[in-house]
Amino acid sequence: MTLFGDEDPTLRTQEAARIAPPRRVIIGWVAIGLAVVLALVLALVPAPFVIEQPGPVYNTLGTDQQVGAKEGGDAKELISISGQKTYPTSGSLDLLTVSVVGNPEQRPSWMEIAGAWFQPSKAVLPLESVFPPGTTTEQSNAENAALMVDSQQDAIAAALNELGYTFPENVAVKQLIKGTPAADVLKVGDEITSVNGTKIASVDELRSAVKQNGTTKPAELGIVRDGAATTVSITPTESQGQVVLGIGAGMDYTFPFDVKIQLNDVGGPSAGQMFALGIIDKLTPGSLNGGKRIAGTGTIDNTGQIGPIGGIRQKMYAARDDGKADYFLAPASNCDEVTGHIPAGLRVFAVKTLDDSLKVLKAVEDGSSTSGLATCPAR
To answer: Which residue from 26, 29, 239, 350 has the highest number of Cβ atoms inside 10 Å of its Cβ?
Structure first.
């Protein structure tokens, strides 16, 4: 009988080698395990980001169904005008949207975020930059819906002003902020006609006048309340780096005929410019765009000033890929985001006013040179 202590050591070493796996095998299995855990984290753990990507495209000269969709029996004109002569149109004046993947209640996974990083048509943004802390998806949707309604009214006003129509348009108090200088002086519904004796015709003009007044002295506001004109004094205050009165201001219009814009499930103010151009095209003979496909974006006020918007890079890809557009009208104030990111085959013009946009369309329509028009350079 052989005792344990008398075994040949060489035999024990060989036996142990047969039983214990090599170190590289252990390391391999550990690596596989870590990879599985990482994959699960990427796939399942929500990230504090959202993804912006190109959204549906709509032709303001067509129906309320997105470009490329099969026309349904319930399709309606996106812009309809009654009580005034209209004219046939051709081509397209496309408005563009951005789709956001993720919200406070359902954030995208790290795997989705990682995939979006490598696609130039998408952008990864911090969750709080799209949904401020304490804001629910429902609240954000309601706010964007209200902005859409206001932008449609401003677009109608801008178009009709461009065409020479006259109608009542007033800057009005829509909301009072508690604890601010205006809360005890103004009332919802008051019309604001002037600041320090200078007449104002738009919300932007009101903001500029209040900013110029500053926070060290009272601003003299001309107002109309219940049909009676008067003057009130309010010292503006500073909020988040801005000089403000402490009101939510908006425009009230009484249009000379009915212009209806129907576009469901799209929010925000960025379609204003294209709404205005679509209205002008329908109210004037011929085609503003020469029958070509033109896309664009930008807020607009009743005086025709075009302002910046978000998601412009995603909108350029939507214009080219879904709308098949060759030309793009971009707010000049967005050019810093546009330059160096223009998709191949798309020419981008920088516009500040509705008149700028109409000059671009005129050049495209009659085939004249566009070399003298402002652009966002491709770099």
So the answer is: 350
